[in-house]
């Protein structure tokens, strides 16, 4: 597609429920990133996929968080048993490292509210 | 370890210059970036600098990189109300291609 697409744009869920957030990266981009932006906080790195390599999961805050990337394209971030502290904007980005400056292109984000 | 810090807020008057500062701990970065986030929007690349450069100018924007002090700054000349946004500095690293972002600086431009 023309840009990084995330869905849904907004999600309200009850505490304890599972949620899935979707990211469609720019076609041909081999790298895909998930970040979390909480109110008043910077961008917190969650997970990073690069081609067929094992993902870098070092930023996932707990084992309730997981992500997968199917066929090297679409990615899903899953949060199990959501807690109120999971409320944030979840941003996805993709990048192609054959570009000279390795620019990351961001989606509009999914605003998650846990009530 | 990787850590990128910025001051949280900056307020300037329209027409003045703005300087947004960033300090980082990992000096092995390849590129350093400034991203802009407007209200309700995703991040967009504003400008970038290769790590072996000291300065880059792009119209109203000037990026200064002090590798000795691990300090990056963004100067916006003739700041306009449309420049009001959150500005993030970021590093990327050869080999891992991982981006580390700063805490973001909220710039408010007063008319």
DSSP summary: helix tally of chain A: 0
Ends distance of chain A:
33 Å
Q: What's the helical proportion of residues of chain A?
A: under 10%
Number of helices of chain B: 0
Ranges of chain A where pLDDT stays below 50 over 5 or more residues in a row are none
Reading the helices and strands of chain B in chain order gives: EEEEEEEEEEE
Structural class of chain A: mainly beta
Detailed description of the structure:
The complex is a heterodimer of chains A (115) and B (111). By secondary structure, chain A is mainly beta. Helices cover 0% and strands 47% of the residues of chain A. Chain A contains no helices and 10 strands. In chain A, strands 2, 4, 5, 8, 9 and 10 form a 6-stranded mixed β-sheet that branches. A 4-stranded antiparallel β-sheet of chain A has the order 1-3-7-6, with no helix packed on it. In chain A, a hairpin with a 5-residue loop joins strand 4 (31-37) and strand 5. Chain B has no helices and 11 strands. Chain B is globular and about 45 Å long. In chain B, 0% of the residues lie in helices and 57% in strands. Classes of the chains: A mainly beta (115), B mainly beta (111). At the A-B interface, strand 4, strand 5 and strand 8 of A face strand 4, strand 5, strand 9 and strand 10 of B.
